Amino acid sequence: xxxxxxxxxxxxxxxxxxxxxxxxxxxxxxxxxxxxxxxxxxxxxxxxxxxxxxxxxxxxxxxxxxxxxxxxxxxxxxxxxxxxxxxxxxxxxxxxxxxxxxxxxxxxxxxxxxxxxx
Length: 118
Ligand SMILES: [Zn+2]
Known about the structure:
Keywords: Membrane, Transmembrane, Transmembrane helix. The chain has 118 residues and is mainly α.
């Protein structure tokens, strides 16, 4: 598995969580009142919308801060990888900005990073 494949897999999980949050949020605000014929102040709407907001915010924050780490140097790539593309890493991003390793190098193979000169 290459670093890009590793990051793409993580990206699908994170944006899958974002999609679930959006579906719960929009479904709770729009779909549930239409289905039930009730107003927005019913407890059933809150029971769907509140978890949707929690899932949405949690996956966005986790993606930005924790889940997109360089497989070699563990540098945080969250801000870079969440700018463009939903299900895969932007193909223009070719190297880790922290260690310079090619994202298409195999993980755990010969993609060792060069430690910066101290
Ligand atoms: Zn790196």
